[in-house]
Amino acid sequence: MSVGAPESSMGQLRLGIVVSVFGLAYFFSLFFRTVNAVLSPTLEEELALTPVSLGLLTAAYFLGTAVSQIPIGICLDRFGPRRVQTVLLCVAASGIAMFGLTESVPLLVFARFIIGIGVAGCLVACYQGASLWLSDRHLPLASGLYLAVGGIGALAATQPVSFVIGLMDWQTMFVGLAIIVLATAGAIWMAAPDPPARPQLSWKAWRSGFGIVLRDDRLRRYLPLSALCFGTGSAMQGLWAAPWMRDVSGFDADAVTWSLTAMAISLMIGSALGGWIGSALGRLGISFPQLIVGSALLLILAEMALVFLPNRLDLLSWLLIALTYNPVTLSYAYVAFSQDKSFIGISNTVMNTGVILATFLIQYALGIIFSLTDASETHTPYLYAMAGLIALQLAALAWCLGARMK
Question: Are residue 134 and residue 248 in the same domain, yes or no?
Answer without folding.
Answer: no
